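Task: fold both queries, return tokens.
Query 1:
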Amino acid sequence: EILQQRLRSEQLTSVLNHYHRLLSHAAKLYNGKVDRYHGTGIVMTFGIANPVTTGHEALHCLYAAQLFSGLVTHLRETDTQLLPVEFRMAAHWGNVLLAPVTHDEHTECNMIGDTVHWASHLADNGEELRLLASQTLLDHLPEADEIKWQEGPLISDLHGGEQACYWLQELSEKNHQLIQRQIRHITAMTEQA
């Protein structure tokens, strides 16, 4: 809202598109898909095309979030002209419903359901550039994979029950180093463009 008040519509579109490209890079590298804006957020999905999941989708979600966070941090450190946008990130696991919006030859769908709502609710309770993950997501990680978590807030779910959530502290050293290399590669590509 603050950006809407400070910027002309063309400038706001340019700023949001810049961040959207970073998010798209992170999603693409980890087999995710950036969906449309939902309210004040963007939803990134993993494993939508596969009816059989392996749990790697949950890992890919974490990796993409860390990559995006690193790209935003780098951008803020190097481009003082770009206005900062606050990002609160959440990770959740579950089924979504695809509701058709148009019925022509190019049907588009909106994602709806408790999973989308709960992910949004998690993000609303999040903090700037920290990933808040649901217990459900953690339950679907294939292995501990040396990921470190910090206990997060208890958040009321849609039915009034309290759900445990966790802050991502750090990935395994191997995955952290990989993401750092990806950040350097992507930022080098975008700076040359």
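Query 1 returned. Query 2:
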Amino acid sequence: MAKYFHLPVPSFFPHHITRQIKELYWSRAIMDFAVASVSLFEPIYIYTLGYSLKVILLFYIEVYIVYFIILPLGAKYANKFGYEHSMTLSTIFLVGYYLALYAIGTSAVFLVIAPLFFAINKSLYWTGYHADFAKFSSGKERGKEIGEMDAIDSLVYIVGPLVGGAILAIWNFNVLFIIAAVLILASSIPLLTTKEKFKMLDFSYQDAYQRLFSKKNRRKLFAYIGFGEELIVMVVWPVFIYVVVTNFFSVGMVVALATFTTTFATLYIGKLTDKRSKRGIVRFGSISSTFIWLIRLIATAGWHIFLIDSLSRITKKTIAVPLMAMTYDRAQKHNVMKSIVNFELALVIGKLLAAFIILILLFIFPASWGFAIAFIIGGSMTLFYVLL
């Protein structure tokens, strides 16, 4: 084990990165800075408008039901017009989403409209992004490339919540949404610097669902359902942090510090992914993450949140980096878009399953049990990753 801790820093980074991957790095860094400044506060924003955790869950259930239905159409578009073109178009719908999100404060009807924009954005962006990464990343250094991308994400997610929290402390959500919208549109610039070369391919809508539920993909389907815990991290955990910490800037500070602790761990995990058994790393991360989910039940102070969020992010990277490397490996060896759509559809099933289970239990048990129920469900779903 000692040899793992004496690696020169440059060895953590990939040596041969294609132009397309560099463009993805820059584009995603800008995009994620915008999203990081606001995404943490999205469920909190809806919560502060007076809506319950049940309503917030229904909001995201609509997002993922629509996403599940239109995802193959997004893949079809990306295959026909190009991966980078699809990602660029998606930014318009993400801006539309934030405009609709802001408008919820004026009319509840936008609680229904906003998820539609978000689902369209996701169907265009993630099919294009994952397909582009799978196609142009290096098989020999894919773990490092994913690790570097995640490390860039981590750095961005350190600054983003701080900036978002500061803007909310000084101004309001209106200003935050406007700044995020400008940055989201700017994230397309790196993708437009060079002309995309692609081969137009057909994609069958019906076949996407047949592949998803086919016997040969059943094990992967159940493993990817583990991503249901991500919805709880995205929706329930921020509201819990806000309830404990009580002000926007402190929420941003806690999450930023927690993210900082994961940056170097992510690079190390990427290095390890290229050298060791990917499945073994995923299984270790899965069991560790389940334990961290259960610890959330006893969090009552800001330093508890910081410690738990830090450990949670590290264990999640231990799962995500090797898992995505395996997903991209399969995609590059077989059909890129078919593999990516299969992954995304299974992921959506996991998130919908998590949301529906929590929602049903909230109707059965007292509202005060909501966070505990969500954390137990999150820990349970994390165990699905071991099936990969």
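Both queries returned. Flag for query 2: The chain has one domain: 19-196+205-387.
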